[in-house]
Amino acid sequence: MNGFQDKVNFIWSIAELLRGPYRKEQYGDVILPMCVLKRFDDVLAPTKEKVLERYKQLRMSSLQNVDPVLNKISEQDFNNTSKYDFQKLLDDPDNIAANLRNYINGFSKNAREIIEHFDFDKQITKLDNNNLLYLVVSRFNDIDLRLCMDIKCLQGLKC
């Protein structure tokens, strides 16, 4: 999914999944926080294992605020210390709601506050109760939301 139209079609496909339990005006309650989560996931993916290794070491130290160290490794202003990412969430469909919450709680405070602003926990429960959570996470796993500002990407060419 490289082109703009592909991403538009993707959003519409998510809206189709939500139809029924959600009204049109509620689609954003799911789509927006999921886009943010997936964007975070994609940006952190290249350094995820290094962050987890370092976090494991830091837990045994007396360092109180590990975020600056982990942010440096993640090369971002945030990090995630959960063992989950979007792909690993799909490995355990029976526990996807609990694992998604674990994943969200693994974000550094500044990133977690963004997700909490959406009050997304309610949507996790609603999606799970309607047997949609796994489907939505699965669909979002299929899209790459790293922002590429290379001119080739902007022209719709492969990065």
What does this structure look like?
- This protein has 159 residues and is an all-alpha fold.
- It is built from 10 helices and no strands.
- The longest helix is centred in the first third of the chain and has 18 residues.
- The C terminus is likely disordered.
Gyration radius from CA atoms, angstroms: 17 Å
Order of helices and strands: HHHHHHHHHH
- The coarse silhouette is globular
Unreliable runs, pLDDT <50, ≥5 residues?
A: 149-159
Total separate domains: 1
Number of strands: 0
Task: Summarize the main sheet.
Answer: none
How much β-strand is present in the residues? Answer: under 5%
Based on secondary structure, the structural category is mainly alpha
Average pLDDT reading: 90
Helix segment count?
A: 10
Helix content bin: 55-70%
- Give the N-terminus to C-terminus distance in angstroms: 11 Å
Element layout with pairings:
Elements: H1 4-18, H2 27-44, H3 48-59, H4 67-74, H5 86-89, H6 96-105, H7 109-117, H8 120-129, H9 133-141, H10 151-154
Helix pairs in contact: 3-4, 6-8
Describe the structure concisely for a colleague.
This protein is mainly alpha-helical and 159 residues long. Helix content is 62%, strand content 0%.
Core attributes:
159 residues; mainly alpha
